[in-house]
Amino acid sequence: MKSFLYAFRNSVITVTGEFMFDLGIIGDGQLAKMLAEAKLAKGLSIAFLGKDFDGPCLGLGEHIVGDIYSSNDILTFAEQCKLCTFENEFIDFSALVNFEKSKFLPSANTLLTIGDKLSEKNLAQELGIAIGKFSLLEATEQITVPSVIKAIKGGYDGYGTFLIRNEKDKEFFLANMDAQKKYIIEDFVPLKRELAISFARSKKNDEFIFYPIVESIQKNGICIRVEFPAELTEKQKNIIEESCQLLANKIDYHGIMSVEFFECMNGEILYNECSPRPHNSAHYTMDAFNYSQFDLHLAAILGLDFPRLELLAEKAMMINLLGNLEEGESSAFPELLKGEFIHLYNKKQSRLGRKMGHLNVLGNDKNKMTERLNFIQKEVKL
């Protein structure tokens, strides 16, 4: 592969050369890694923008060292690529909206529309999608017990989310809130379970393709397990899929998207939030289907026909392999896991709660699969 020459001026990249990449991925973490490894990525020339040049994406394409949160770096990087896609939605898209839509997919304008939780939830409400009560947090008097407070931007894996169960939790939030951030407050909703669905919408003809709905099991705001399939009524399934179509059509979304829903104790389905990118809740598709969520994302943004999905197992479960060591070098992977579908992210540093990989188990006996995963989660040290 032809190399670039790099020069850095005030942290802005200057790139010389005539090379043009088929796909530029803005980000260089595990999602970028798995996107570059997808079946439909074969034959594509790929470049990554990021700073972790010897991390997850090592050896999978050309690595351009730069800041994914710098509009200048993104725009310079994009000039070298036929098409760019984003690994996360926490970027400031306002400086990118004037670029032609064909350069960024999902488009910067689309991502700006749902770029914060308040805008996203307002849009869902405007579309008539059932959603719990929420509002912008503007005064401490609004904080009721119980409730949930979330940062409008930048929250993920439990970061930026505060469950207010009592006055002590309220005091903790007030002592630890970031005065530079805005928050929303939501009514606490007693849940039966959390659900997630992943789908893609194609730039070729706006066609939709859906994966089945899964149950997402959370702990401290982090998804620790996904179970497929989730048993639901046809009415519940239709509500979820129709809500996704309403949202994606309204914002003219192209690519893979995951949407999380709450199932209330009475069976009511409420919208929670969307992730406009490949998502943890669909990692099971890498082994449970012939084409993964990463393949569907590529098909959608490249304008390819969607492949026919084939289910390879009756049931599937995914667990995140979270760092459970104090910060330091990642340990060797244990022998006990060589029978499962293991996906490691090649992160050199481990820390408590950091996503170091995930593991998929396929089968037809939920009890045996659960027993096996419980054992693995107890024994693995990463």
Structural topology:
Elements: E1 5-9, E2 12-16, E3 23-26, H1 30-36, E4 46-50, E5 62-65, H2 71-78, E6 84-86, H3 108-113, H4 117-126, E7 134-136, E8 147-151, E9 161-164, H5 167-176, E10 183-187, E11 191-201, E12 208-210, E13 214-219, E14 222-228, H6 234-251, E15 255-264, E16 269-275, H7 285-288, H8 293-302, E17 315-322, E18 328-329, E19 341-344, E20 349-350, E21 355-363, H9 366-379
Parallel strand pairs: 3-4, 3-6, 4-5
Antiparallel strand pairs: 1-2, 7-10, 8-9, 8-10, 11-12, 11-13, 11-15, 13-14, 14-17, 15-16, 17-21, 18-20, 19-21
Explain what the structure shows.
There is one protein chain. This protein has 382 residues and is an alpha+beta fold. The protein has 3 domains: 5-88, Rossmann fold, CATH 3.40.50.20; 133-187, Dna Ligase, domain 1; 191-379, 2-Layer Sandwich (D-amino Acid Aminotransferase, Chain A, domain 1), CATH 3.30.470.20. It has 9 helices and 21 strands. The strands form 5 sheets. Strands 11, 12, 13, 14, 15, 16, 17, 19 and 21 form a 9-stranded antiparallel β-sheet that branches. Strands 5-4-3-6 form a 4-stranded parallel β-sheet, with helices on one face. Strand 15 and strand 16 form a beta hairpin. The radius of gyration is 21 Å and the shape is globular.
